[in-house]
Amino acid sequence: MIVENTKFEKQQYTQEALKKGEYDTCTFLNCVFSETDLSNISFTECEFYNCDFSNAKVKNTVFNDVFFSECKLVGVQFNNCNPFLFSVKFDNCNLSLASFYQVKMKNTRVVSCELYQTDFTQADVSNTLFENCDFKQAIFEQTILEKANLTTAYNYTIDPENNTIKKAQFSMPEVLGLLKKYDIHVK
Fold this sequence. Notes:
By secondary structure, this protein is mostly beta strands. It contains no helices and eleven strands. The strands form two sheets. The chain has a seven-stranded parallel sheet, with no helix packed on it. Strands 1-3-5-7 form a four-stranded parallel sheet, with no helix packed on it. The model has no long low-confidence stretch (mean pLDDT 95).
């Protein structure tokens, strides 16, 4: 099933699941996908506004050029998505407890998002803009952050010896999060 150029408003997919298929250039407004199984569904050039995806299952889900604005994506395991053509943008979203384990999301825009305890282990976020993002207890292990822009990001703890941060951009005083493991005091 292919659905194109369609607007979905105030749909509760917790009661009746979204039909499996390909959704191209569709818009979803105020929809609830919480705990829903979105596995094997394809979203291309779709936009989601004020939608709730908390703990949605996304095994082999395609997110190709997808935009999320003011969405709740708590606990979403993006590492289970189809990696082919994976391309997303987030604006003012809650991505707490989400996982981007081994996900390649280069050249991405993540703006004004909560990323509490979000897992970026072995992810490639090269050249990604993290504008005004809160990384409280986010996990960075062997993460590629080359040329990433974190100048307005805050609450991150990143070990420069365990992550690739070449040419990444940081600002004071948050850059001190790179020294946290040394338990030193900078005045």
